[in-house]
Specification:
By secondary structure, the protein is an alpha+beta fold. It has one domain. The protein is built from five helices and three strands, in the order H-H-E-H-H-H-E-E. Strands 1-3-2 form a three-stranded antiparallel β-sheet. Helix 2 packs across helix 4, helix 3 crosses helix 4 and helix 4 crosses helix 5. The chain is globular, with a radius of gyration of 15 Å.
Length: 130
């Protein structure tokens, strides 16, 4: 199988400045695709790890957004989801926060070059309080 993105994406490091290019329209597009992708795939496994180019390939094929912008948007979305003070104005993030999944990212993944931003989606463990 051939990659539908440049191999260099596996080594590209996040650029903090790119986050400033992310506007509400981009955040909405990426968060909707994240939500749709999670809902459609229903995550067959307990956890999935991916870089932004893989996310674009899986969930945003038709989008003109570059992986670097998608990465910055995913980073912003996950930071907002993790924000304890997330308010009702952020409806698209509230639904992700209340979903059956935990969203996170790291720049320290063992499977990628150090510094490469890797996103993780894990199923929330149902607590069995008795």
């Amino acid at each position: 199988s051939t990659l539908s993105f440049f191999k260099s994406e596996f080594e590209r490091l996040p650029n903090k400045q790119t986050e400033s290019e992310v506007n509400d329209e981009i955040l909405n597009e990426v968060s909707q695709n994240l939500e749709n992708c999670v809902r459609v795939s229903a995550l067959d496994t307990e956890e999935v790890n991916f870089i932004a180019a893989q996310f674009k390939n899986m969930c945003m094929k038709a989008s003109p957004l570059l992986p670097a912008i998608i990465e910055a948007a995913l980073t912003t979305i996950i930071d907002r989801i993790k924000d304890e003070n997330l308010d009702a104005d952020n409806e698209q993030f509230i639904s992700l926060k209340q979903s059956a999944f935990i969203f996170s990212y790291t720049d320290e993944s063992e499977n990628y070059k150090k510094g490469v931003r890797v996103f993780e989606i894990r199923k929330k463990i149902e607590s069995t309080d008795e």
